[in-house]
Design goal:
The complex is a heterodimer. Chain A is built from no helices and eleven strands. In chain A, a hairpin with a 4-residue loop joins strand 7 and strand 8. The N and C termini of chain A lie far apart (about 40 Å). Chain B is built from no helices and eleven strands. In chain B, a hairpin with a 2-residue loop joins strand 7 and strand 8. The radius of gyration of chain B is 13 Å and the shape is globular. Classes of the chains: A mainly beta, B mainly beta. Chains A and B meet through strand 5 and strand 10 of A and strand 4, strand 5 and strand 10 of B.
Chain lengths: ~110, ~110
């Protein structure tokens, strides 16, 4: 089945710096890749997603890139702010026989220091 | 505008008890999911359902069962709770064939 690996597990940056989180997936049939942000004590919230027919997607300070050949995708946060501090999860979805279930990475704890 | 509601935020149960975790969504989504979240392990899929009365095992179904008698409600059942089932349980739903999940607020279950 699908396996998603996420790195790094923790990331510490200074306010204003960029942060990059990387994920790799195993199933080449996966075609949907969302990113979730989970603040302390809160539910995971979808922040951006990308489909396999697109190589890059941007929404203000966040962007996601996808390399289908290498089977990896990345989250880029520019001009980080303290409110970006949270745990970020990547996920991959395979529509074939899996009813679009998401398989998640283990998460990255991002700390943005003022 | 809460759309996925989990009945309990915190729950403490004794070893051997039968435990019911309830999840209700008001978005008419076909698919519903139960995950458990543990530090360093991310979110692991326990069970999911793609229609009323339909269910599929996820990656870690042992010790759990589910029930989906109505489209809006998906219940997770711990047949005989054990201490290794102490965890945060997250319910999620999504419409068929599109979009990401909407998560509930989670139930932190402690088995003593």
């Amino acid at each position: 089945g699908e396996n998603v690996e996420q790195h790094p597990s923790t990331l510490s940056v200074q306010e204003g710096d960029s942060a990059v989180i990387k994920c790799t997936y195993s199933d080449s049939a996966s075609n949907y890749f969302p990113w979730y942000k989970q603040e302390l004590g809160k539910r995971p919230q979808l922040i951006i997603d990308i489909r396999s027919n697109v190589g890059e997607k941007k929404d203000q300070r966040i962007a996601v890139t996808l390399n289908k050949t290498a089977k990896h995708f990345s989250l880029h946060i520019t001009e980080t702010q303290p409110e970006d501090s949270a745990v970020y999860f990547c996920a991959a979805s395979n529509p074939l026989g899996g009813y679009n279930k998401l398989i998640f990475g283990a998460g990255t704890r991002l700390a943005v220091h003022p | 505008d809460v759309k996925v509601t989990q009945s309990s935020r915190y729950l403490v149960k004794r070893t051997g008890e039968k435990v019911f975790l309830e999840c209700v969504q008001d978005m008419d989504h076909e698919n519903m999911f139960w995950y458990r979240q543990d530090p360093g392990l991310g979110l692991r899929l326990i069970y999911f359902s793609y229609d009323v009365k339909m269910k599929e095992k996820g990656d870690i179904p042992e010790g759990y069962s589910v029930s989906r008698e109505k489209k809006e409600r998906f219940s997770l059942i711990l047949e005989s709770a054990s201490t290794n089932q102490t965890s945060m349980y997250l319910c999620a739903s999504r419409p068929r064939d599109r979009g990401g999940y909407t998560f509930g607020s989670g139930t932190r279950l402690t088995v003593v």
